[in-house]
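Below is how a single chain appears once it has passed through the pipeline. First comes the sequence as given, then the structure the pipeline wrote out for it. We keep one example in the README because the format questions we get most often are answered faster by looking than by reading.
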Amino acid sequence: MNQVLFHKSRGRYLIGAILFTLAIGIPQVLAAAEDVNGDWEITMDFNGRQTFAALSIAKKPDGTLTGKWGSSDLSNVKFDGQKLTFVRTIKFGDQVSFKTEMGFGDQTFVTEFKAKLDGKTLKGQSVSDRGTNELTGKKVN
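Resulting structure:
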């Protein structure tokens, strides 16, 4: 009889510990997912030259993410709780004055971004056919 009571109390303790861990862990994961939403100041290194950009990430009503890099819309915006990824596509043929002045013609540049969220800081890379560049982002709101 004593062993039965011991096993029952041990089982209750184990179930309580699991429920407690889930209760604490799930809100932290959900809070982390919200941390990527908002406006970011991005600093990138292009061959020793620093450039700056504005990144905005928002959640749509259906739960998916959307974003803008400056005035450019982003595609495939995803965040898994730690890692943010997205694609930025620029079409130069759409901008006639830029096309004729800069000589780019009808070209499309695709850049893939991968960054890890650490608090209010993003650290990662942009990868395109022109190379890989390091980036750092700081949340501004």
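Residues 37-139 form a domain with the Lipocalin fold (CATH 2.40.128.120).

See the next section for the split statistics.
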